[in-house]
What does this fold into?
Amino acid sequence: MRASAVVALMGNERENREVEGPMTETTPQASSVPGGLVYADVPNRAIAYIIDAIILAVIIAVVAGVVAAIGLAAGGFFSALVIGIIGLAISAGYFIYTWTTMRATLGMKALGMQIGNAGDGKTLTTDQAIRRWLALSAPSILAQAFQPIAVIGLLFSIAALAWFIYLVYSTAQSPTKQGWHDVFANTMVVKAAKTVS
It folds into this structure.
């Protein structure tokens, strides 16, 4: 379901339900989606991403230890490159696999979130998952690749941080909580609405 379709559907839904507080002109009109779901907010998405980063860091550290034990990572540029490529492959595999098969990463699942196609809510295609992962990770990929080169690595790291801040900002500013990466991949992150009885 497209974001505009969600907003239109919500308008009809709002007319049919009781609202406890008065609706004002400043009340966000696109805070929930049909089916008892709401758009996932930035703090929950950030926490889920941190959980995923911790999971990936542990997996990559174990793999890096194995790679070092067999002698492929003796130190220096080549070692950093090998570990970086392996880390990127693990990251891509983790995010793309979980988004396309489980509809959520482990961090997202821990917080009750799921991801789907913004147009119809279906499970992401592999193409969408790859596009979303690249949109989230491209500057970080460059920062990792150039990390052994002091000044260039630092510049790419600063650019990666700026990109991440921009994605958080674009997500926070969107009424549907779709950051640039979501719009680019045509995805939407939602979570179950909590109700108070």
About this structure: The radius of gyration is 20 Å. The chain is about 60% helix and 10% strand. Confidence is low (pLDDT under 50) at residues 1-30. Residues 43-192 form one domain.
